[in-house]
Specification:
Blueprint: H1 26-42, E1 46-47, E2 53-55, H2 56-63, H3 68-73, E3 75-78, E4 84-87, H4 92-101, E5 111-120, E6 132-141, H5 146-162, E7 168-174, H6 178-193, H7 201-209, H8 223-227, H9 238-253, E8 259-260, E9 272-280, E10 288-294, H10 298-301, E11 309-315, H11 316-325, E12 338-342, H12 345-360, E13 365-367, H13 374-383, E14 388-392, H14 394-399, E15 401-406, E16 411-416, H15 420-432
Parallel strand pairs: 1-5, 7-8, 12-13, 12-14
Antiparallel strand pairs: 2-4, 3-4, 5-6, 6-11, 7-9, 9-10, 10-11, 14-15, 15-16
Helix pairs in contact: 1-5, 5-9
This protein binds histidyl-adenosine monophosphate.
């Protein structure tokens, strides 16, 4: 192949030749996106679409210079006017940029947005990790109470429930307020100092740049030090503790299963208070289906009013893979109601007329324009699982009659061509309202 697809990205096709790649079937994506849109509407989240690229500075400021995303994973380039732009690696910063720029707080006191779209991270590709992935994200701006955090955790778990996902783990933690984190970082410095020469090179770099991120390391040589590290829960200010306890109590009230995970810190620097991650035991190393948390300072950092926010994002590839692994059945591909096979020019003109008339009244009709032999056309009709099939040749045109074949029953019925469209419309109506 002279022009292969770049590494770490993939096509989403209406038909996926390899069974193990069935999660890339575009019908599965449409189904998932439909469930998401309905859910978001019911929870009062409205769609926001931001550009695929933003000024690089936006992500540096919000996600954090020392985060993996900003320090190693961004697709950054200069445009022709030498402005530094970056393909968005995540969706929160662009939503907040738009919120601040358009002064959306003046429209309503609480804004709830959702988005679905591609994100770009230059990561080492592997199963569940891509250089272009897709997220469904939701952000609620303007409410600082624990109920808002719980609404978002419930929204995400309800999505997974509606999709039939099982064996999920909801991990919950708090990263407290600025005071909490300052004290916690000091304790981590003392703790990790003694392990420093034995830590992975990534964690050694994190020691001075962003020490809490060591807790996120998966390197085997870091695990002993991480297991022995102090817990942030012992450093919470009274305000941070009260918020966290309220979130825990509310989650129990609404009947959700969750567990506290004191080492959960998340990879983006904008979080404070609640953080959460939902993982699936169906996925391998990349088992995080979705995650999020509160990020109260971000709007002010980006030049807007001092408003609190909380949100999450979930990776659509991983959701579809988990569904596939569980053997979930997706709705079947849409099938034509009638498939016309014209033989010859005159027949083709007639069939074209009927196909168009039926499509104009919302009946899925298909015409075989391949010009292939009748056997091949019939094979296509079978492949598409059409409900009816009609072959039109010179004989049928001459007699004004044709055989309408019902494919499931193999039953054929003689139909007068001048009533064909009317007949199909009546059958279709009977089928959808029996
Ligand atoms: P994140 O944890 O970086 O959070 O990404 C959210 C989800 O996107 C992950 O749980 C994972 O399912 C998926 N994901 C991330 N990177 C990849 C990748 N390379 N390949 C495949 N899937 C991936 C955020 O992006 C935050 N903006 C979430 C948020 C919204 N926090 C507050 N509001």
């Amino acid at each position: 192949m002279e022009y292969p697809i770049p590494k770490g990205v993939f096509d989403i096709l209406p038909e996926e030749p390899q069974k193990e790649d069935a999660w890339r079937n575009s019908n599965h994506w449409q189904y998932l996106e439909g469930v998401i849109r309905e859910l978001a509407r019911e929870y009062g989240y409205r769609e926001i679409r931001t550009p695929i690229f933003e000024r690089t500075e936006l992500f540096v400021r919000s996600v954090g210079e020392s985060s993996d995303i900003v320090s190693k994973e961004m697709y950054t380039f200069n445009d022709k006017a030498e402005r530094s732009l970056t393909l968005r690696p995540e969706g929160t910063a662009p939503v907040i940029r738009s919120f601040v720029e358009k002064q959306l707080h003046t429209q309503r006191p609480v804004q709830k947005f959702f988005y679905i779209g591609p994100m770009f991270r230059y990561e080492r590709p592997q199963a569940g990790r891509y250089r272009q992935h897709h997220q469904f994200g939701a952000e609620a701006i303007g409410v600082c109470s624990a109920e808002q955090d719980v609404e978002l955790i419930d929204l995400l778990t309800e999505l997974y429930r509606r999709l039939g996902l099982k064996n999920l783990k909801v991990a919950l933690n708090t990263v407290g307020d600025a005071n909490t984190r300052a004290q916690y970082r000091e304790a981590l410095q003392t703790h990790f100092q003694q392990y420093l020469p034995r830590l992975s090179s990534d964690s050694q770099a994190r020691f001075s740049r962003n020490i809490m991120r060591i807790l996120d390391s998966k390197a085997p040589e870091d695990q002993e030090a991480i297991a022995a590290a102090p817990s942030i829960l012992d450093f919470l200010s009274s305000e941070a503790r009260a918020h966290f306890e309220k979130v825990c109590a509310l989650l129990t009230t609404i009947g959700l299963d969750w567990e506290v995970s004191p080492r959960l810190v998340r990879g983006l620097d904008y979080y404070n208070h609640t953080v959460f991650e939902i993982s699936s035991s169906q996925l391998g190393a990349q088992n995080a289906l979705g995650g999020g948390g509160r990020y109260d300072g971000l709007i002010a950092t980006l030049g807007g009013p001092d408003l609190p926010s909380v949100g999450f994002a979930t990776g659509l590839e991983r959701v579809l893979q988990a569904m596939e692994k569980q053997g979930m059945q997706f709705p079947p591909d849409p099938r034509p109601f009638i498939y016309f096979i014209p033989l010859g020019d005159r027949a083709r003109e007639e069939c074209m007329k009927w196909t168009t008339a039926l499509r104009h009244v919302h009946i899925p009709a298909e015409i075989d324009l391949s010009g292939k032999k009748i056997q091949t056309c019939l094979q296509t009709a079978n492949l598409l699982h059409t409900v009816f099939c009609l072959v039109l040749g010179e004989d049928e045109l001459r007699s004004g009659q044709a055989q309408l074949k019902e494919m499931d029953t193999h039953h054929s019925k003689q139909i007068a061509l001048d009533d064909l469209v009317g007949h199909i419309i009546r059958s279709y109506q009977r089928k959808i309202t029996p």
